[in-house]
Design goal:
single chain; alpha+beta; Arc Repressor Mutant, subunit A; 2 domains; two-stranded antiparallel ribbon; 12% strand; MarR family EPS-associated transcriptional regulator; HTH_MarR-typ; DNA-binding transcription factor activity; MarR/SlyA-like; ArsR-like_HTH
Length: 144
């Protein structure tokens, strides 16, 4: 079984490879914002991908600021991205199916008439229960 940390790392690598394939000239700051991690985190990920031979560093000569680089996927990086994409998609499908089952189980816990327990036959409205406001919604408001 893959650990949560490994999955997160694989997801981050997938997102970085995917973005770089389309936008190799992105700065580390732009890439960090797109992936949703810190600039330091992106620096670490990029170095790991470079060390694995999946990304190479090239000059981005079109930039006025000559300190900018292009992060280009190597042939090995393109092959790895395809494999990681399959694994990512498979994992997301499993998560989606598990979430669907959980939603179905929760729907089945609700009463047949679609009203929540304790709401009586009231329409969706705010009512006071034990000095706490609570809103009750009819089940039909949930998408099936």
């Amino acid at each position: 079984m893959t650990s949560k940390r490994t999955k997160l790392q694989e997801d981050t690598h997938f997102r970085v490879l995917r973005i770089l394939q389309e936008n190799p000239e992105m700065s580390q700051r732009e890439l960090a914002e797109a992936v949703g991690v810190s600039v330091g985190g992106i620096h670490y990920v990029l170095n790991a991908l470079i060390d694995k031979g999946l990304v190479k560093l090239g000059d981005f000569t079109a930039a006025a600021d000559k300190r900018r680089y292009a992060y280009v996927l190597t042939p090995k990086g393109i092959v790895r991205k395809a494999a990681v994409t399959r694994a990512f998609l498979s994992r997301k499908i499993e998560e989606y199916e598990a979430l669907q089952k959980e939603i179905e189980a929760l729907k089945n816990e609700l009463p047949e008439d679609g009203y929540t327990l304790g709401a009586g036959r009231q329409k969706p409205e705010t009512t006071v229960c034990a000095s706490t406001e609570a809103t009750f919604f009819k089940l039909s408001t949930l998408k099936k």
